Amino acid sequence: MTPAFHANEGPPLVGYFTYSLVGDHWSWSDGMYNLHGFERGEVTPCTAVLLAHLHPDDRPGVYEVLDNAMRAATPFACYHRVIDRDGQEHSVLLVGRGVRDDRGLVERLEGYVVDIAPRPLRGTLGGDHVTRSEVESSVAWEAGFRPRTGGPMVAGDPWG
Predict the structure, then answer these.
(1) Which tens digit of pLDDT belongs to each residue from 28-53?
(2) CATH number of the domain within which 110 lies
(3) 99 is in which domain, residue-wise?
(4) 126: Cα separation from own chain's centroid
(5) Residue 7 belongs to some domain of the structure
(6) Taking the model in full, what pTM does it have?
C-alpha cells in the first residue's frame, strides 16, 4: 500500500532525476515522465524537454537555482510550476543537491520533484462527491503544508 498525505487522497506524484553535467545527460524515474505527461520511452529526457515544460513565469528562478547548484554543488530547493504535455499545470517542489567528483568538480545534480498540487479527493459518497468535513480537512492540511511564497527557498543539506 502506498501511503497518502490525506486519507481521501491518492499518493503525490514524485519523480527522481539525475543530471550529468559531462555529456548533458538526464536520467528520469517513471514519476518524472508522468509529471511531464509522458510514459517512459515516449521522449528522451533532456534539458530542452525540461525547459519546455517549465511555466514561463518560473523559468528565471529555476535557472538561478540550478545554475548555482551546478557551479557550487550546493543543496537546492525551489517551488515552481510544470506544464505537462496535455497543458495541465502542476505545482511542484524541486529538491536536490550538486555532487562533486574526486577532483572537487561538480559532476552531477540529483534530486526529487514532488507534485504538491491538491489532488482530487475520493469521497465516501462515491464519484465526484465529497463530504463537507472531507473538504474542510483537506483545506486545513493544504494550508499547513503549501509554501506561502514562490521561487527559490533556502535548504539545508538533506543528505549530510
Answers:
(1) 999 999 999 999 999 999 989 988 99
(2) 3.30.450.20
(3) 14-153
(4) 30
(5) no
(6) 0.68
